[in-house]
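Researcher: Re-running this chain for the archive, since the previous output was lost when a drive failed. Same request as before.
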Amino acid sequence: MSESRPRLGGLLSREPHVVAAGVDVLADALHQQAVPVERVDWRPPPPGTEESLATVLGDPRHATANADAVGRMLSARPQLVDVRPAQEVLGLERGTFLHAGPPIDWERASGPMRGALIGAMLLEDLAGTPEEAEKALGQGAATLEPCHHHATVGPMAGLVSPSMWMFVVKDTEHGGTAYCSLNEGLGKVLRYGAYGPEVIERLRWMGGVLGPLLREAVRLHGPLDLTTLMAQAMQMGDELHNRNRAATSLLMRELAPAFASTDSSRADIAGALTFIGGNDHFFLNVGMAAAKCAADAARDVPGSSLVVAMARNGTDFGIQVSGTGDRWFTGPAGVPDGLYLGSYGPADANPDIGDSAITETVGMGGFALAAAPAIVRFVGGEVPDALAATRRMYEITMAEHPALQVPLLSFRGTPAGIDVTRVVRTGILPVIDTGIAGREAGTGQVGAGLVEPPGEIFTQALHALAGEG
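Model: Regenerated structure tokens:
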């Protein structure tokens, strides 16, 4: 043996670097002896997934397909180009409603979904009272379809009815278009399942005043680059799901001069700006449509295990994957763990609901918690928890977002592009920060917190990719 060659690779001549994976017995013992140890959050793949993992990872298309899909997702250039009624842009007919999440019918609908449907019936004058609306819905008077089936996303219950006005966002890089309704604010609002007179009155004002005014302002302004706006907002402390204060302010700064240049009355302009200025979540719906554009750009790449939609209807949690087309993989939606308003508690909470997890799908929201330390005051936890959550998401994603960067992580791009195979292999589930709707129809919002999808939906998707499901 050559004397110049370190024995045992230098193991005996330098301090050891210990990495512990799996159970904590070894790591705990070393820690008690003051030995530095790096813990790796790892667990073996669930039983029964080994063959599917080998098939998918061994597919010669897999690496190239994922690079293509995530590349399309991250190169999307969404721009706000218009605001128009749903009946115009989506062709919704009277009695047809879009909802959040995978497909569901009235019989399986949760309390907040039922409340939002009742409110939509009242808004569209399809019923005169909540009781009439509920009876008609139970008799099949309305057609229910997922927002995602119409290039649309909606927060919480996600209800879209023909008369509602929609943000129109176009991807100038890949040509797709996505839509989202206007944000109502917080508290007792339709998307949380409330349908009282104040809810319907607000929605009618939004349809009669706010929507037309926004249309004029957006058209006067011209296409608004949302990637640049969102990147700036993240530098200012937004994660672009549950915190949109900076993004809403930046949007107002862009559109306010155009508002003032419209032919609308001073009272209507003042009312619209006051409403937007008092609603820190106003940008959420714009950002959701931008995220939908980016995710849709990555669809239908054969062999790709990239998640292109995560959505909840208050009963089921569903995902769609690039390589499996429009198929939904579903499991039971969980109740978020978080902070509650007033006297509300976990017993009042409905299982998770909404299309807003489209933000996490493309690297925002829960995946960007480290960019928004103040969010912990809204969803619970401490600042180190937010940092840890973002770092953990790098383990299950394919890339880092080139525009959305985290100052506290030395401007590292947010983790983006959830990979089904990595979720199954590591057991790490996507983290989503979300509002919490009351379980009973008509309650409204009861809190906010964090939630994870059911692990089995990623296993379902894996088997489908392997041709076994």
